[in-house]
Design goal:
heterodimer; A: 333 residues; mainly alpha; MetI-like fold; 2 domains; 16 helices; disordered N terminus; B: 521 residues; alpha+beta; D-Maltodextrin-Binding Protein, domain 2; 48% helix; 14% strand; globular
Amino acid sequence: MFEELNRGISIPSPKAYREMTPIKRREMREGLLYISPWLVGFFLFTFLPIIASLIFSFTNISIMDGILNAPEFVGLRNYIQLFNDPQIWTGGGSGTSGSLWITIKFGLIALPVGILLPLGIAVLMNNPNLKGSMFFRSAFYMPYIIPFVAAIFLWGGMLNPETGWINRSLMAMGVPRSMVPNWANDVVWVYPTYVIMGIWGIGNAMLIFIAGLQGVPTSLYDAAKVDGANSWQTFRNVTFPMISPVIFYNLVLGVVGLFQFFLVPLVVNNGTGRPGGATMFYNLYLYKTFFTFQNMSYGAAMAWLLFVMILVVTVFLFGTAKYWVYYAGEGRS
Amino acid sequence: MRKSIFVLLAILLAASMVLVACGGGAEPAATAVPAAEEAVQEEAAAVEPTAEAVVEEAEAAVEEVAEEVAAEEPTAEAVVEEAMGDKTQIRWFVGLGTGTNPEQVAIQEEVVADFNASQDQIELVLEIVPYDSARDTLATQIASGSGPDIIGPVGWGGSNAFYGQWLDIAPQIESSGFDLSVFDPALVEFYQTEEGQVGLPFAVFPGAMYFIPEMFDEAGLAYPPQNYGDQYELNGEMVDWNWETVTEVAKLLTVDVNGLNATEDGFDRTQIVQVGYSPQWQHPNSTATFYGGAAKIFEGDAPGSYESAIPDSWKEAWAWWYDGMYGEQPFIASGPLSGAPEFGNGNVFNAGKAAMGLTQTWYTCCLGELRDAGVEFQMGIQPAMADGTVQGRIDADTFRVWKGTANPEAAFAVLSYLITDGGDKLLPIYGAMPAIAEKTDAFFEVKSADYPFVTPESWDVFVQGLAYPDTPSAEQYLPNWTESFARIQTFGDLLNNTEDVDFDAEFDKLQEDLTAIYNKQ
């Protein structure tokens, strides 16, 4: 089917075009006419900017020099500078780590939570013994429909070190004031803080997992039961393989989202990198390079590095998929 | 059928394009005719003839008037030209600093009107741009070669973001015979940078040590001196009012929940209720300048040759600051503590939680809560450094001329007006202290009305402070200024918020990072 569909939307070669019947030709022309608004929009507002940013990354555009002055071609200078930029690459330290290291460090905490927590909740929601599952599904999904920025402000209030009810609850339980977390103002606690804030966004992933779980044929569970499999064995050998495409989908989206992580540090810590540079994520640094430091060419080079990194990681993930992702009907590829 | 639909669509599309193309030209006539109609209808109503006659007359009159209007109506460009005559237009860009509040805009418009009425050579035009978009807007204007002539009020920070774009106004000062003697010479020198004389003093914010006398009374300590050169009485001895003294006094004024000060056994650093000192909203560069002296902090003259050159005295200053927060005997509120609501969410002195705070005149903006709580404050002199000299700090806003201006003489004429006569109206709404010493009385009268308990001796500390500018400024130009300045702020933020920082390692990393940022191209 896919092959047919692909053939249907491909542009024919000149020879094939000549061999078309008049009706086919007219249909093709009309088809192109109908999608031309999108094609024009894509060309003007997506494709051209992409190409422009690639060209910019090899120049030294400075907005101060005037847009009428042709930028100078500087070869790979921006990329060489990129690979020597301590703000990107420096690892470790007591606070002022490089942006890439910060992004990876955060990802190591956020990605497992972002995948496993909605998966766990989805498994619970899918349990036939759960009463009121519709209510719980709605309850878990509801935070997702709250505008993200509003949710962040709400969390900011809850996690306020002094007035937030979370710390007040901790202190009421006997945790000394000096021991309660300083949450978003602490170079260590700021990452768990962001992860906690992100929990409100798991509703969507949870629904996708539930859909995946409901697509697992009950006959497989019956067979597992007949074979004497316990709950873990059933999950490990039936559920997981069957929903592995869904996990893979969420994982790829999660990784892409991680590299593009931006809004939370921008809102919670005003995009300053506070505390102590611990929240200067790569994408935030990219944004600041463009729009605060107004270093357009270098920013373009950073954007292309981001694209390459996401591409490499995504290709890697797709490479590993054949070892753990199971597509029903195709067997293990 | 399908073909006919396409033909119909094509005709409709062509017709709509023709209509759109014609629409632009038809608009002016459409606006002129209703105005004429109104006039004719009013006339018709007055004589009350028959309806048909009125309509006919009206239509005829409308046509006649419309023709006259069309013939006589000048173009927009002609209107502007006529209004300006031979005047040189000077654009004044406001938005990089203060000046965008509605009440400020109204006064600025008044100043523009005053200026325009005062002479017939220059037409001053005001451009107000919201602060958040001002940098982008100005950058875009400059990039397109249509930058404004005058920009301001703007401080060092806003100016540094456009380093290299400012006109050296020394030739205009000389050719116009502008009298510089109205300023303290140190303030004129303050605006001499590698770009030349890039400004003249206008609004100044000298520093002073704000203090709460009640806290000193409770601790049995003398108040900070109020005249430069005076000493301080500590433990029965007269000592210099320097940072060592400030540190000692601040520790005695830092109190925990049990009433113990920072020097006493059993002092609970986790339960501090009052600190002795607050570097109230000071950038790390500012703290370092106060403590270690004004200094240029980079070397080199071109990308590739730049190197961070933060002096040891600044490193000592930051180590002192860090020790003040996280050392054995803390006397400065750390980031988490100062960020607490009880400590004013960062406005520690205003919350009545700091006995002393070294900051500038502008801080008088933000002491309403302290006043309303019935707490009085006064001002003392800025402390001396280890070598005995006083390193003050002056924040300053002024107007700058864009180097791309086509009319530098006219732009300077406007600048001269704004910092002198225009300043009489502008400075009060900017809340700024005049750089011209003889004009400061009016400023302090307003401030005295806000804070009646502040003594004339305290206000005079600010006037004395004009003699202690930081040259180069703590907000001096650095290559890739915005990023460099932010990197230093990040370092300060790390110190502010993190206990057990490897100070030397972080300082070395700061130097390394700054060198890399300076050399970015």
